[in-house]
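Hello,

I think I submitted the 6-phosphogluconic acid job twice by accident. Can you confirm which output corresponds to this input? Input:
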Amino acid sequence: MQKPQIEIARDSLDLAERMVRLFLSAADDAIASRGVFHIALSGGRTPERFLERLAGVPRVGRFPWDRVHLFWVDERYVPPDSQASNYRLVARTLLCRIDMPEANVHRIPTEFEDMTDAALAYGRTMREVFRLEANGIPQFDLVVLGMGSDGHTASLFPNSPVVRDADHLASVVPAGDTVKPARITLTRPVLRAARRVAMLVSGAEKSHTLKRVFLGEPDEMRYPVQVLWPVLERVVWLVDREAAGEIM
Ligand code: 6PG
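Support: Only one job matched these inputs. Its output is below.
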């Protein structure tokens, strides 16, 4: 296994600030070299802090947001104004404070009666925005992920067949014992195709899993975060001291 690139942050605030720097440098690079920055964001506690910090950075007010296309890694199948919505999290922390054209904001739709149609529609949006051929895979400049204490990432949960879905860009994750409500998630090929992945891991409750993930035999059905193992050189792990307790 390639050696993971791990940055240890003092605490969750330091982690959020490191993520802000990573975001700005990835966005600057992408815009300078390709004129556009494609990013996909996750929900959860850790990204929330990052988004709040990002919204407070002075140069963010002058940032060329019209060159940014914003997508989501995953979404709970709830209306966009629900407390549980990952879209709402970004809308209330960042989008309400910046001038990003609505046409550049690509939330995961949750209005379809059949969730499969929503996942397919989201896949079509990616194909259009990235101008993909029929079987193309979008290459995000930056995908921001988190890891749950069970080793899930995005909405790829342990022992779910969706972990191995390589036929779709976005997939339905049905509700079950650990997943409530049902969700839609980007799939493994999309996560692996990203130019850069930031994996945010914060909190003592993740320390044991993090150790197992790094030191145990790889088993992506047990620890879905390991779907990134083939592309580990493109993943930056931003881990706070509490979460890093068992790997330091
Ligand atoms: C979500 C996610 C999920 C999350 C992890 C870590 O919307 O919940 O995309 O994969 O990133 O569960 O969440 P925390 O940052 O809250 O620990």
